[in-house]
Amino acid sequence: MAVGRRFGPTRRTTTAVLAGTIGILSSLAVALPVWAQTAPANGYFATPPPVDMGKLIPDSRQPDKKYKPSKACVQRSTLGQNIVLKNRPWGQEYLQISKAQEIVKGATGGSAGGGVKVAVVDTGVTRHPWLRNLQSGGEYVAKPTNGQPDGLEDCDGHGTEVAGIIAGKPDNPEVGFIGVAPDATIVSYRQLSENYEPDTSTSTPPASNTAGGTPSSSTTPPTGSESSLPPTGSGGGGTGSGDGDQTSPGQSNGGRQLEKAGTAGTLKTLAEIIRGIADRKEADVINMSVDNCRTADGNITEGEQQVQAAVHYAAEAGIVIVAAAGNATDTCPQNDQPDAKKPKTIVTPPWFADDVLSVGAIDEYGSVAPFSVHGPWVGVAAPGTQIISLDPAEGSNSLANLTFESGDKASAIQGTSFAAPYVAGLAALVKAKFPQLSGRGIINRIKETAQHPAAPGGRDNFVGYGVIDPVAALTQSLPSELGNQAPIPSPQLAQLPPANDHNSTPMIVALAGTGGGIVALLITLFVMRTIRRNRPEETASRR
């Protein structure tokens, strides 16, 4: 009896304290997930900030700094031994380019892209007998050493191969290769080069020969830097089976990176060129197989803002802006994170998808090329492997299936850099057949007629709206162009599982609320049981 009188109040106090503690913890269990989910966004990732037109800069029409050659321009070891690749590239057949060209020729009187100008902002374009319509656009690296006008020297070999995919036109009937829009005019702007580096010296460089003809014999390449396509038994073109540029699986060596240490080319000059093209009306289409890739940190740099303002300015002026979606490398990791809305890698200019049609790459099997950078900005896709194009070596009159990386590493031509010109060429064909269409109208036609992936809304982050379909883009009647709303496809019975980017807030709140209710029920049961256990002791103590 005495024991019951002594410890009864203590038990009741302990029960009350324990119940209060559990109650507080249960309320926190419900509130914490809500706090986490309602926190404000911490920066710009999948979606860039609104365009700031105050960042639009004028075109200086010159390099932003002084550059000097670090390696000699790409050369062929034996210029007279050019290969003849008689087969059509697989991408050309896959896209039915010949049929598309016949459609345009029938509508324009025999021309496939004639009268349309495509600006190639790249490493420059070397003159080639199979590049019929080539014009100087501008020079933003250094005065050409080959005696040609600005923009018509390609030391890297990259820009010439890009231009060939757009408008190459061989005069050899045995050659199967042909550019997408062979009668279009290429306007070349040399904006970057891995064969040039910033010149920190104060000495004045020797004057270049700008009057045409043969460069001075005193011009010599840097020692030990001569590059040449390796000769083969068939004569200098290579097979693409050499060591090349070693990369990890799923990576590409086919891109050109802006603002790469020890090379020429910045976002600032890219923005200047785009603005200048729009001001001077120098092109209908701009192809940019150049990118700046960086880690996504929620911010936007000044150079990116300048490019964003420039592409918006040009798009409003009616220009079709096409850009490579980017290649995964050691310094440009693939966007393979679970949440697609928060990429770990940002690629510019594709990031600005409201004004830029960015192009991913597929391989010869029709699959997404493993090196093609994924992202919400990907618009469409095109062939990006096993590429054949014009030989960029000075004095060549044939084709190449190799390109150079880091100035001296020959490897097979692949990358989103070479998928983008397929789309730029198609834009030129669409412009030729539908001259009344605006730049945005051309982009819309290319997107709507693409081979849509089996994904919600007919779009994913790998190939965008799908692989381009040139024949459909040139023949299909689009409701949107007739002032009608495009039909909404009915739901399919079998669909792919949704991407792992859904909002988990409702599920978290529901589970937390259920857990809180269970905890509250347990507290009630515990208190009731404790009271019932103490009641007999109190009755006995009164007796």
Written overview of the protein:
The chain has 543 residues and is α/β, with parallel strands linked by helices. The protein has 10 helices and 17 strands. The chain has helices spanning 2-37, 90-94, 97-108, 158-167, 267-280, 302-316, 416-433, 439-448, 470-475, 505-542, and strands spanning 67-69, 74-76, 117-122, 134-139, 185-190, 196-198, 227-229, 285-288, 292-295, 320-324, 345-348, 357-362, 378-383, 389-390, 399-400, 402-405, 409-412. The strands form 6 sheets. The chain has a 7-stranded parallel beta sheet with strand order 4-5-3-8-10-12-13, with helices on both faces. It is globular. It starts with a helix and ends with a helix. The relative contact order is 0.17.
